[in-house]
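hey
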């Protein structure tokens, strides 16, 4: 019998009949304060900026020109586009679009200049964006390997105040990626290095107006 089997056996015996699950108090605050949707979006933008993400705001009419400007300013020659991303968002993009293919190797993805995705939702109090691989988001690795990630968040539909509000809206069986700013780490001397295990540059577009 392996160590794993012994540990699981102890857990099964501990929760068997006659050993009811202990009650877990859930009296913590679900949200810290009362905010209007505009205030929630402002809080999200503030925390994203604090994490060194670049935050932009636009509406449906401005999304295509904005994406065109951001990718041109980056000098992107190729941009990876997941299935389900509204095609008109890229009407002003001059870079060559690359489809999200299962067969793409890490070397091929590393050669892509930028990736544009949507998201599942965003959390204002923590400045976190959550991806779940749904339409317009693609597979997890397309947002971890390219060095430049542009993520579009629909406001207010995809923005919640807190983590307790976010969890019931997410499917725990899906692969969830939680992003709080660009990828970064610090060594023992607190020297910050970005782009270690994900994009060096994260740009977030807060898109207001009705879903398209």
């Amino acid at each position: 019998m392996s160590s794993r089997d012994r540990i699981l056996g102890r857990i099964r015996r501990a929760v068997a009949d006659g050993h009811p699950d202990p009650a877990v108090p859930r009296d913590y605050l679900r949200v810290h304060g009362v905010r209007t949707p505009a205030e929630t979006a402002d809080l999200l933008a503030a925390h994203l900026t604090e994490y060194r993400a670049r935050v932009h705001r636009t509406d449906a009419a401005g999304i295509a020109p904005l994406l065109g400007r951001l990718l041109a300013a980056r000098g992107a020659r190729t941009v990876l586009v997941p299935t389900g991303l509204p095609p008109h968002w890229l009407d002003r993009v001059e870079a060559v679009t690359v489809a999200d293919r299962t067969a793409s190797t890490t070397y091929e993805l590393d050669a892509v200049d930028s990736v544009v995705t949507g998201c599942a939702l965003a959390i204002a109090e923590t400045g976190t964006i959550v991806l779940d691989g749904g339409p317009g988001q693609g597979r997890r690795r397309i947002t971890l390997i390219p060095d430049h990630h542009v993520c579009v968040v629909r406001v207010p539909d995809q923005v919640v105040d807190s983590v307790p509000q976010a969890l019931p809206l997410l499917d725990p069986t899906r692969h969830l990626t939680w992003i709080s700013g660009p990828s970064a780490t610090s060594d023992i001397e607190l020297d910050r290095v970005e782009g270690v295990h994900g994009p060096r540059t994260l740009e977030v577009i807060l898109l207001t107006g009705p879903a398209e």
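The two ends are 56 Å apart (CA to CA). The CA atoms of residues 51 and 209 lie 26 Å apart.
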